Amino acid sequence: MTDPENGSEQADGCLQPFVCPLNQVRAGTSVRIKQLTAPPEVTHRLREMGFCEEQKIKLLSQSTNIICQVCNVRLGISSQLASKIMVELVAPARVA
Questions:
Q1: Banded model confidence at residue 94, pLDDT cuts 50, 70, 90
Q2: Structural domains of the chain, with CATH
Q3: Half-sphere exposure of 60 (CA within 13 A, CB side)
Q4: Which among 9, 21, 81, 83 is placed 20 to 30 Å from 51, CA to CA?
Q5: What is the pLDDT of residues 16-63, one digit of tens each?
Q6: Cα–Cα distance, 32 to 77 (Å, whole number)
Q7: Bridge partners of 57?
Q8: Euclidean distance between CA atoms 39 and 2, whole angstroms
Q9: Which residues pair with 31 in a beta bridge?
Q10: In whole angstroms, what is the distance from residue 89 CA to residue 33 CA?
């Protein structure tokens, strides 16, 4: 995938420089949820499952379904539903 500003490929898989849908993030990437764009009843259920704004999650696997680690629990959602979860990359922790 390419960065729209300079045409270079981004390592994280996001098409946008700051926020992108969860289904565009590569497996192994840690992200922070910024916005849920699903209908209200679906958004409510996502929040019940732990997919809340500002929650840090890790994308473990991406194939037919998306497997994420949320609050130390592995959850699977469809790629279509993952497209409604807007995320930003979490910078890796630096070791001093």
A1: low
A2: 20-89 (2.30.30.90)
A3: 11
A4: 9
A5: 568 999 999 999 999 999 999 999 999 999 999 999 999 999 999 998
A6: 16
A7: 31, 70
A8: 29
A9: 57, 89
A10: 9
Within 8 A by CB and 6+ apart from 55, the residues are 32, 33, 70, 71
3-state secondary structure the chain: CECCCCCCECCCCCCCCCCEEHHHCCCCCEEEEEEECCCHHHHHHHHHHCCCCCCEEEEEEECCEEEEEECCEEEEEEHHHHCCEEEEECCCCCCC
Q: Which two tokens stand for residue 71?
A: 């609050």
